[in-house]
Amino acid sequence: MADRAAANVCLANLTVALELAHAGIPIFPARITTRFNSWEKSPLVKRWQEAATTDEIQVRSWWKQFPVAVPGIELGRAGLVVIDPDRHGKAVDGVEAFAQLATDIGGLPVHPTTDTPSGHHHIFRQNGGEPLGNSPGGLPRSVDVRGNGGWIVGPGSVRSDGAVYRPHAGTPSLTQAYKVDTIPALPAALDAIIRQPDPGRVRERNTRPNRHGFVFHDGPVDIDAAFAAMAYESKGGNGVNATVCRVIPSLLRKAEHPDDVLARVVDEVMRVAKRQGLQWNRQEETKLTVKRILSAYHNLLLKDYEPVKEEVPGWLPGDFHLPWAEALAATGRPHFGCNARGFYIRGRERPKGTGPAKAARAAEQKVDYSTANDPAKKYRFPLLRFDAMRPGVEPDYLVDELIPAAGLVLVYGAPKSGKSFWVLDLVLHIALAWEYRDRSVQQGTAVYCAFEGAHGYRKRCEAFRRHYGLTDENPPLYIVPGRTDLIKDHAALIRDIRAQLAEQDMANRPVRVVVLDTLNRSLIGSESKDVDMANYLTAAEAIQKAFGGVVIIVHHHGIDETRPRGHTSLRGAVAAQLKVTRGDVDNLITVEIEDMRDGPEGAIIVSRLQVVDVATDRAGKTITSAVIEPAQGPPPPRIPKLTKKQRIMLAVLQDAGEGGLTTDEWYERARKEGVGATRRSDLFDIRMALKSRKLVSQLGNRWKALV
């Protein structure tokens, strides 16, 4: 029953998302999670303002990836502004306060309204001029504003606990009103109140908790005592959430480095969790604490810093002083951020007409568009000037001239061709830093996702261990068992890999390679559909970007055995494509580099399977597996099977001799032989099939037979 209820919630939210998109309202997937008896909302996609869309295909793709998502409305492009009064415990009743304000200004026009779990969403059009943002201005406490740069949960959405963002009875439907453009503009009286904040409201707002629970106190906080008293269940304000939100601003005011604050706070929170027997995730706690530190810095800027003086704040750690001064000179508005390298400071452009004239002139004149490589700048489409385009010193290959150092690699072949044995042998050489067939190797961690089941890999690893006499060596190779839906689960896969490597003190070692074996067992969908394959490749690329190495996709061949099975976008997305074949007579396994985006093609690696005894079962029977060994013999002969028309086309080109034929000449002679007389596309298909088998070569518009 629980599964059915969850499925109904997912379907309801997808339906709402599609209705909003069809109405022309840009949406994106968001999540609502519970923590410390409160609900927190956050986007599920990066750059959600840019990503928000009305495209049905993209929406369905998102909800396939995030089935428990709720639709978020990007208000900026929608041209909407929302008044959000709430009721929260003993705080001021925002719903009642806003109702009184509406009465005082003469009432409100009929407008779309949503009953939220904690209050209402009153939805209006922006009132012209400069769009309103997310500042409540002079509105009563517990009444917020969401506008340009903000978002809300779409009406009709269902929270995981069953709470519904229900359209208010007797008010217009948002989607219908948006379609026919009947949503009224925000009343001028409300607009004026928001744009001209009341000083009393500003003072109140600076002393009440922000969205991360911070209340800034003027008095000092005894950090050690606060952490010592911190408990899971709050008694007199010593709960985890209250303590952390009290301690972080106090530590930052003492000019403590944010990296040190982050480490200390997370350690203390995990200590409480361990004491209570709670299975809290350290990575998730780190993410949340980073947000709280950034929010605390933002509040410090609002409360304890005057930007017009262009001074370095006394609470700023010493190694941030220079970046702060540079940000002041460049834009006049320093801003805190955090990425994988840690906390940083960058500049935000100062609005025209504000701040000192010197800073304003600098913001106008000192615009350096040639600094796309500056890690502090976050351009989505950086410009790299010619002089910056120089090769680095990093190796181009993970395995020299065989596996690129980064990107997607496709290894495909027939079932039972030995492709999984070969890939496992390859990644073990990478993990052990062993040369591979006289090719240099970059050593690193290898993660092998055995989606077809990990049972056989226990025997294969034992066979490798016994064959090479490994006793003390414990290479950083990790097997991930079980089938998955990579499109849906790739983010969880990345999180789990990172978390478990961190638990084993392996977080600082690079993950050089992740293997997905096989594509078929990790794709819930059709290999032949462009949308499913595109979503799968997006998931694989996300894994590659997360670890920065290479992702090897193991796959099967198509019907004609000359190309990978499924949609052709797969071949276009990979940096290298390797084909595995196995001889019927000599049992040799041949790996050929068919395509290499920035490297040599055509190289062939020949191996054979060597049977190894790995154990004895309870009945006394010997258990065996196999390892890959280099083979000295030649590769198995390539005798392609051709159709009648393919043989005719090849014979026509062979008859032309060394000079070959142009495309038109080849087509004309083939038609005389009865090929392509009724369907010109047959000639193209046959020509490309012969080329893929390396029976013909192309130089410009001229073709020659190679056999």
Summarize the structure in words.
The chain has 707 residues and is an alpha+beta fold. Helices cover 36% and strands 20% of the residues. The chain has 22 helices and 25 strands. The strands form six sheets. Strands 16-15-17-18-14-19-20-21-22 form a nine-stranded mixed sheet, sandwiched between helices. Strands 7-4-6-5-9 form a five-stranded antiparallel sheet. It has a four-stranded antiparallel sheet with strand order 2-1-3-8. β15 (445-450), α16 (455-467) and β16 (477-481) form a beta-alpha-beta unit. The chain starts with a helix and ends with a strand. The relative contact order is 0.06.
Compact summary:
The protein has 707 residues and is an alpha+beta fold. α1 packs antiparallel against α3 (56-65).
Ends distance: 65 Å
Radius of gyration, in Å, reads 32 Å
The domain count comes to: 4
Give the CA-based shape: globular
Mean pLDDT: 83
Which architecture name of the largest domain does CATH use? 3-Layer(aba) Sandwich
Give me the count of strands: 25
What topology emerges from the helices and strands here?
Elements: H1 2-22, E1 27-35, E2 38-43, H2 48-51, H3 56-65, E3 70-74, H4 75-78, E4 80-85, H5 94-104, E5 113-116, E6 119-125, E7 143-146, E8 151-153, E9 166-167, H6 174-180, H7 188-195, H8 199-205, H9 223-229, H10 240-253, H11 258-276, H12 282-304, H13 321-330, E10 334-339, E11 342-347, H14 357-365, E12 397-399, E13 403-404, E14 407-413, H15 419-432, E15 445-450, H16 455-467, E16 477-481, H17 486-503, E17 511-517, H18 530-547, E18 550-556, H19 569-573, E19 576-582, E20 588-596, E21 604-616, E22 622-630, H20 644-655, E23 661-662, H21 663-672, H22 680-692, E24 696-699, E25 702-705
Parallel strand pairs: 14-18, 14-19, 15-16, 15-17, 17-18
Antiparallel strand pairs: 1-2, 1-3, 3-8, 4-6, 4-7, 5-6, 5-9, 10-11, 12-13, 19-20, 20-21, 21-22, 23-25, 24-25
Helix pairs in contact: 1-3, 10-11, 10-12, 11-12, 17-18, 20-22
